[in-house]
Amino acid sequence: MTFRFKLTGGAALYGAYAALAAAAFAAAFAAAAVASTAASTVFGGAAKQGAFDDLNRSRPLAALGSEKQCARYSGLPARWRDDPQAGMVHLHGGDFAFGSKLGYEDERPAGDGKTHVAGFWIDQTDVTNAQFAAFVKATGYVSDSERQGGAVVFHSPTREEMNARDLAWWSWVKGAAWNHPTGPGSTLDGRMNQPVTMVTQADALAYARWLGRDLPTEAEWEYAGKAGHEGADLDTAPRDEHGKPSANYWQGVFPVLNTDEDGHVGLAPVGCYAANDFRLYDMIGNAWEWTKDVYSGPHQSHTNGDTAAVAPLSRRHDTPMVIKGGSFLCSRDYCVRYRAASREQQEADLPAAHIGFRTVLRDAS
């Protein structure tokens, strides 16, 4: 479902666009709600047992989940580099319903969706700038954004920019990189506890292998993201019991007005919002996360915005890979991918400001 528009009538047109888009998305998602709710009970018994197991007992798990806690977090988990599973939790294997009947076409489950994953450790948070900086310092690694001489950066466009070109909120910025997030001269000062972004899949894999780990498969990521739940509430905008956003995503009219209801206009430090039932933070929103799986399935027209469209024309197109979880740019009226089952494609070697990663360590078979 695609909405294209040009801004010609000021704020009133922004509001009309938002209302139209939101209504269309709501209708599309609600159409299958009853069926999805019924299907969610198929694996309910197994899900209620949970996968957060006794291997986590007495481990120094991150004390995060609020604005105060995330603000004072250094970005390095307890026993960093001393414990092979520092900053991770263990999930035992199990079955879950892979996909969603409420989302986009390429999220539809295959058959009944029943999928099995084996046990694994997974990072509690996205890999932070502090962690990636430690990797670079230890290894001398040079990231793809540095080699390519730039990365894709977001900004809220003016009316003139919106009228001039599609995807006006994306720009290829020369000199932008994981350690120069807005371009030359910018630094990571005050951002060491944020997710590292502008990293490619190869960058993420290099970091993971440095620690003897890997990137999650799409199924492993979604198993962790759903945290033992299968209900239709997984396909709604995440809000807590008080109605406040419980993740960092876009509130307002994308891409011109962010109301900051969730407390963060751009990237937030990791762990500012409550963890899911597997003690994992930011599985929804903040930054998309790389998986190790090639994107397949129907590539329908949608509204996330292809960052490759603004990359240099001389750049070759690489393999599209699955990214999961949505980001601070996902909105109710535009992207609607702040959901555990959501999936998107990103070219493996294209660094962008809204994509990070977390790692896994699989149990020995």
Automatic annotation (TrEMBL):
Highest rank taxon of the organism: Bacteria
MF terms in GO: formylglycine-generating oxidase activity; gamma-glutamyl hercynylcysteine sulfoxide synthase activity
Domain Sulfatase-modifying factor enzyme-like: residue ranges: 86-360
Organism: Paraburkholderia fynbosensis
Keyword Protein transport set for record: no
Signal peptide feature range: 1-30
EC nos: 1.14.99.50
Entry protein name: Hercynine oxygenase
Keywords: Oxidoreductase, Signal
InterPro entries membership: CTDL_fold (IPR016187), Sulfatase_Mod_Factor_Kinase (IPR051043), SUMF_dom (IPR005532), SUMF_sf (IPR042095)
